[in-house]
Amino acid sequence: MSRPIIEVSHLKQYFPVKAGLFRTIPLKAVDDVSFSIEPGETLGLVGESGCGKTTVGRSLLQLYKPTGGDVYYEGVRIDAKNIRTYRKNMQIVFQDPYSSLNPRMTVSDIIGEPLDVHGLCATKKDRRDRILELMELVGLNSEHANRYAHEFSGGQRQRIGIARALAVDPRFIVCDEPVSALDVSIQAQIINTFEDLQQKLGIAYLFIAHDLLVVRHMSNRIAVMYLGRIVETAPADEICDHPLHPYTVSLMSAVPVPDPNTERTRHRIVLKGDVPSPLHMPSGCAFRTRCRFATDKCAAECPQLTDRGEGHQVACWNT
Amino acid sequence: MGELLLQVKNLHTSFFTDAGEVRAVNGISFNLERGKVLGIVGESGSGKSVTAYSVLRILSEPGEITDGQILFKGEDIVKLGSKQMRTVRGGKISIIFQDPMTSLNPTFTIGNQLEEAIRLHTNRTKKEARDRAVEMLTLVGVNEPEKRIAQYPHELSGGMRQRVMIAMALACEPDILIADEPTTALDVTIQAQILELMQDLQKKLGMAIILITHDLGVIAGMCDEIIVMYAGSVCERGTADEIFYNPCHEYTKGLIRSIPSVVGKKDRLVPIAGSPIDLLNLPKGCAFASRCDKAMKICLDEKPEEIWINSLHIASCWMNVKEVYDEAAKEGGPKDE
């Protein structure tokens, strides 16, 4: 196996939350998360809102200063000092194409900015050519380079965001819910664009989303998060067809499938209650308050990810 | 056949903006019987929410119903005065909105808001209204309803708030419940809870539901009949089986192809090319023609009429007419020789 392009080990990200006049308590957004991504691979990261999947993406890129743990890019440890040089290799595409583009900048300025920041283009002509090349690459009409973001539809704006990320020729991109804000027909266009780019340029993705059908389609492997921890990780088809962790099982059974016969005959495992507050995390396994199989051991000790063969890892005492 | 509750006939709704007339709904017709679930599916801007708002007459300025009839138990509610309309709205037909975070008033307690709805539409006393509120909260599965009733919306989670919205909508035993993207703002596992709840309540109370969503997955298991909308027009209307297994409009086919397969085959997705059209400048032909790869000359010139595919299925697409002609030509062919 080749050397992983991204390695995350025991990543922790706590945010201080005021709990009184002088007291703060940590909100454990990400707690002890480890994974690695091979060159050209897509790792899907799924979970419900508030489970910390977006925070993982941002801490990884040092957009937050991680509380603990290490991130390695091709074996080199990334920290606040050297991240600026490595941003050329690691980029991000945001969820909301409406708020992640500056409304006062033209498309060519938006795509050109990373080129300027990293000093990648020697002459004005180089810069211009590169911008037009990038626009063509993501399927935008290069004649529209001087337009403003608001003149484009949601799908096209997301393409601008992708072109901006690609400008510096990265080898790894964090895709943070890149298709969630788009209509179904447009979603498919953007998914195809991501896949084409991966094939052409060999980019690795961390694909963060809550839509399991989309994640399964995009990913080689999938990691499922619950309250700041990864509870299960496995190859995409394996985890969707044979989930082991009780949370993953109910998650998979809850996904609405566009097929009336499957929907009529399916057995949904509906979870009781809501996700607990990350400020008052249950002891032991965080999922035990909603789990059907919870025992005393689950309350006492937090289960670690253990190997179940063929790259399938689960953090649960009872499977 | 159940009792016919709602008949919408050739409804047109427009928004008169500074830029011109935005024709959000262009001639939609459907019937709704008691105890049935009607799904309206479409992308943003397809007119599905505006259709619902027209039925309840809660269109915001400058929206207006320009043509058509909405018959509720035989009475045209387009012609009702605002006072009469208020007894229908909330009492006979009620609605749950997409975003439970913003559709509850943050300055009043849950109990206050529930009681208000109950006392407006029934002549219960304050005490009776409170009992009814607790009863409704229990019905929708809110735990500790006596305690919740004194709480403010911000103290509840998203799923709980949506349950409160449902309790409020059903408190006056409406004949029709309109659910406008009821689970879009919620997580998958909470979505499953809410969908399950809606199905249960429908069985218990027997009201009709109009379920509006963009998620074909949500609509597949819930609905008896489905309407597919594009740019304010009905593309296709039929039973769930017909729409999913025998789609006859190119737009519906495209939508179904755009969704990643469940079986996990890594086939390339087939997206619909282009982007949604501008409602200010609707073409004179089929609204979908500019994005349709099977578009013919007639599609650009003439609006397709509704064609009965079979007794359970109507589609508005010229391709279906062409197929009939092709078939006839094939059968008629040998005779000519």
Summarize the structure.
The complex is a heterodimer of chains A (319) and B (337). Chain A has 319 residues and is an alpha/beta fold.
What does this structure look like?
The complex is a heterodimer of chains A (319) and B (337). Helix content of chain A is 32%, strand content 22%. By secondary structure, chain A is an alpha/beta fold. Chain A has 2 domains: 38-62 and 84-219, P-loop containing nucleotide triphosphate hydrolases (Rossmann fold, 3-Layer(aba) Sandwich), CATH 3.40.50.300; 241-319, no CATH class. Chain B has 12 helices and 12 strands. In chain B, the strands form 2 sheets. Chain B has an 8-stranded mixed β-sheet with strand order 6-7-8-3-9-10-12-11, sandwiched between helices. In chain B, strands 2-1-4-5 form a 4-stranded antiparallel β-sheet, with helices on one face. In chain B, α4 packs across α6 (158-170). The longest helix of chain B has 19 residues, at 318-336. Chain B starts with a strand and ends with a helix. Classes of the chains: A alpha/beta (319), B alpha/beta (337). At the A-B interface, α6, α7, α8, α9 and α10 of A face α7, α8, α9 and α10 of B.
